[in-house]
Specification:
With 539 residues, this protein is of the alpha+beta class. It folds into 3 domains: 3-54 and 167-241 and 348-388, FAD/NAD(P)-binding domain (3-Layer(bba) Sandwich); 67-164 and 246-336, D-Amino Acid Oxidase, Chain A, domain 2 (2-Layer Sandwich); 406-538. It contains 18 helices and 18 strands. Strand 12 (263-267) and strand 13 form a beta hairpin. Helix 2 (25-36) packs across helix 9 (375-388) and helix 13 (470-479) runs parallel beside helix 17 (510-518).
Length: 539
């Protein structure tokens, strides 16, 4: 019996203190905080963990510099503080990165004026990052020759932070932490309806893979459904102060375009921010920012062309990028929290700040909006909210986030050095293998070392250019509740973002990967993934 089956069997056996519906970043940090503080927690998601918005971000953890223009100084101050805290708590994962920003002639503000804003941003960021620099167009071209400065008035360079791995992996590590603290977590389980009777929530759920009904009981419920939060509240007949409006964001992944590992920032043809973001040997470009009415957006040819047109205009490429250069795509909605019926007309100006609505009579919490940068604050706020329901936290001061100690990391690195692990680092990677494994698995990376010491073949890279060892597959099969092949390729790893689907399907190591992950179901899961790829290519 695998981990998911074990957890499924437990869902109906207890009355939990808290049921969390939704396992994006908001649900994940809520689960991690509450379980560490001693409550019994169950988590379900109708899809995979971080399957929607939380796996389609730009991988940036930033302090909200764009909100200076709308004079939201308190929000910027809060987000800068949150960014700094995240960088301190996850030094291997959330790291400083420079933003090389180019302003075109005729931009709505002169470069010197915008640079003064970066100084204010640096000060509000408590001098935590490197000092901003004002740059001439000539200086910009010298730092990154690929930038077309023929129409540039100048620009500047400043710092923010980025997730060294993919966003979904970051979210999953909170889920993993919650499971380590006793939370019962399952993916591909949907909440169908619920009733609050006899002071207990009775939730009718369904296993989406087998269509088997599941009954779950809990003293309180957290609606962490992200863009689907309004729909779930309708199901619960729960009226809230906030609701969502949606902005569609699309990113395209292409082969590496830049010489420096900095984020190139511009203002696109529609006046909004446009990024060229390093992603190892690839580059992520975008984003779009279009109001949509559905939480299930699709990438259109117009989206692709908008991004390609802008990158071709802003960069001096040897040849223009075309649709054929696209390796993969990311498309999701930003669920923007709106109070009452306001905010519809000025949705572009809406910030990503979160809101928490509470129904104390039914011990029901709804989370709206939010972003990765602010996730620790969300977890702490939800823990305090649940405690206010008269559900005291057994360990209220327990720290539920952050990397393991430097001493633990030193122990791992010593073990890695003994088996000369870094000698196996791929030639195209600038990051030592030991650092990557620590960043991805933290103290659990010792289990990878154990596998390699037991069998040196476990240190072999299974899929070309995928930066994944055979030992990591075995670990993932045991510990990461991979239910579909896309869970592994797109969210536990970023393989499906850096390799196109044809290269993945033709990889000699793919069959073995399926056998490790799914055992006797390997062929079925591979066929399921092939069907998924065919469907997405025809949409």
């Amino acid at each position: 019996m695998n981990l998911r089956e074990t957890n499924l069997n437990q869902l109906h056996q207890h009355t939990y203190d808290v049921l969390i519906v939704g396992a994006g970043i908001n649900g994940a940090v809520s689960a991690a905080a509450l379980s560490k503080k001693g409550l019994s927690v169950a988590v379900i998601d109708k899809g995979d963990f971080a399957g929607e918005t939380s796996s389609h971000s730009s991988n940036l953890a930033w302090g909200g510099i764009k909100y200076l223009e709308s004079h939201e100084y308190l929000l910027v101050n809060k987000l800068c503080k949150s960014r700094n805290h995240l960088m301190e708590s996850y030094p291997s994962t959330v790291q400083e990165i420079r933003f090389l920003t180019t302003l075109q002639k005729g931009f709505r503000f002169p470069a010197l004026f915008v640079y003064m804003g970066t100084l204010l941003y640096w000060i509000m960021g408590r001098f935590f990052t490197r000092f901003p620099e004002l740059l001439s167009a000539k200086s910009i071209a010298a730092r990154e020759p690929v930038i077309d400065t023929s129409n540039a008035q100048g620009g500047f360079e400043y710092s923010d932070a980025f997730l060294h791995d993919n966003d979904a992996r970051f979210v999953f590590n909170f889920i993993r932490g919650a499971m380590d603290n006793g939370a019962i977590v399952t993916n591909y389980v949907s909440a169908q309806d619920a009733e609050f009777t006899d002071n207990i929530w009775h939730i009718n759920a369904k296993d989406e893979l087998t269509q088997t009904p599941i009954q779950i009981k809990a003293k309180s419920v957290i609606n962490a459904c992200g863009p689907f939060a309004d729909k779930f509240n309708d199901t619960l007949d729960n009226t809230t102060e906030h609701h969502h409006v949606f902005s569609k964001g699309v990113h395209l992944i292409v082969n590496k375009l830049t010489k420096v590992d900095k984020v190139l920032a511009f203002f696109a043809s529609d006046g909004r921010l446009f990024f060229v973001i390093p992603m190892g040997q690839k580059t992520c470009i975008g984003t779009t920012d279009d109001k949509v009415d559905t939480p299930n957006p699709q990438v259109t040819d117009a989206d692709r062309q908008f991004i390609l047109d802008n990158v071709n205009t802003l960069l001096n490429l040897e040849k223009p990028l075309t649709m054929d250069d696209i390796i993969s795509e990311r498309c999701g909605v930003r669920p923007l929290a709106v109070k009452g019926n306001s905010g519809e007309s000025d949705w572009v100006q809406l910030s990503r700040k979160h809101a928490v609505d509470v129904n104390p009579e039914k011990r029901l919490v709804s989370i709206f909006g939010g972003k990765l940068t602010d996730c620790i604050n969300v977890g702490n706020e939800i823990a305090d909210t649940i405690a206010d329901f008269g559900m005291p936290l057994p360990y209220p001061k327990a720290k539920w986030y952050g990397e393991s100690s430097e001493a633990h990391k030193h122990t791992f690195l010593e073990r890695a050095a003994l088996i000369k692990l870094d000698d196996l680092t791929p030639s195209y990677s600038s990051e030592p293998l030991s650092e990557r494994l620590w960043r991805r698995y933290d103290i659990n990376a010792l289990q990878i070392i154990d596998e390699i010491q037991r069998d040196p073949k476990q240190a072999e890279q299974l899929m070309h250019n995928a930066e994944y060892l055979r030992a990591e597959l075995h670990y993932a099969a045991r510990r990461e509740m991979i239910t579909k092949l896309d869970d592994f390729l797109r969210r536990r790893s970023k393989i499906a973002m850096v390799l196109n689907s044809d290269d993945i399907l033709s990889s000699p190591g793919l069959i073995e990967a399926c056998e490790i992950l799914f055992g006797k179901q390997a062929e079925t899961k591979l066929a399921e993934y092939q069907a998924y790829v065919n469907q997405t290519q025809t949409e």
